[in-house]
Amino acid sequence: MTLLGGHIAMMLLVAGELDSAELLKRLGTPDLVISTSAVEARRHFCDEGGGLGYVLTVHGPDRPGIISAISAVLADDGGNITGMSSRLSGRLYVLIADVELPKDVDVAALMRRLAATGASLDSDITFRPVEPELL
Amino acid sequence: MRAVLGAPHPLLSAVAEPVDPTEPTVVSAAEDLLATLRAERGTAGLAAPQIGLSLRLIAFDAGRHPRSRSWAGELVLANPRLARAAHWDEGREGCASVEGLTADVRRATRITVHGHLPGSGEAVTIEADAFEARCIQHQLDHLDGLLFLDRVPGALSLHRRLHSCGA
């Protein structure tokens, strides 16, 4: 859940028997804008991840095209952004993304391309493996 | 006393230069850094790049923070170097140069740092834990051009700042 322009925005993943049209009908209220869609939960959310987990940080002056440029570099290597958080604080734009890479990616080469893209955006980029949870 | 730079700023992304701690200009920079830290409410540490000086100087006073255990006092260190780091844990951090944001960052909770005192040049070793250890590591990162944002462990660990708790 987050605030966008003073409006609450949230996305919920739910499981149940209702189709998306019926769910939308039951959720409808005049104060909220709601959309529903069915997802292939088994394929997208229940499979074991087979890739490499990385965390990407981008920070620099706010400007259009940062997410587009960074996600294009990741997509070229089959990288998948599985979580993302961005904040604007004054002139500073910050993007943190969880990224899953195919196992055969040349990570060093990808990091060089990310660094070059960051430099072209006047932004700093760090890209590092996810630290394992120590339970 | 100097103004604290806010990100984005090139000096906050640059590696700072080693200093001669006995050099009068370095002593003057250390005094400026300490004066600026004293004037910053809610901030327990500053590094020279944050006040526009690309020098390997840090100032800290962990006694300003309620989660502190060790307390080396109010201190400026020249050319500080992390010699030992152990017992890693996550904790919430902010920064005087990053207004409005905090994040959960994993850092060592017990550290040993070597450095020199500005003026005399005397070599000192600091054993720090808990918040003081976190604060010192945060300042050391500034000397290498890193912000705490570069150490955020995942997308869900970045937060809006609700109150002042700067490292």
Automatic annotation (TrEMBL), chain A:
Q: Which residues form the ACT domain?
A: 55-130
Q: Write the signal peptide boundaries.
A: none
UniProt xrefs under Pfam families? ACT
Q: Which Gene3D superfamilies match?
A: 3.30.70.260
Domain of life according to the entry: Bacteria
**PANTHER family in alphabetical order:** UPF0237 PROTEIN MJ1558
The protein, known as = Glycine cleavage system transcriptional repressor
- Organism of derivation: Nonomuraea fuscirosea
UniProtKB/TrEMBL annotation, chain B:
PANTHER family for the chain: PEPTIDE DEFORMYLASE (PTHR10458)
The UniProt record lists the keyword RNA-binding: no
Q: Which cofactor does it need?
A: Fe(2+)
Regarding protein family, the annotation reads: Belongs to the polypeptide deformylase family.
**What keyword terms does UniProt attach to this protein?**
Iron, Metal-binding
- List positions binding Fe cation: C95, H138, H142
| InterPro entries documented for this protein | Peptide_deformylase, Peptide_deformylase_sf
Q: Which GO terms describe its molecular function?
A: metal ion binding; peptide deformylase activity
Q: Which HAMAP family match?
A: Pep_deformylase
The annotation note on the cofactor reads: Binds 1 Fe(2+) ion.
Official protein name in the record: Peptide deformylase-like
* A Pfam cross-reference name: Pep_deformylase
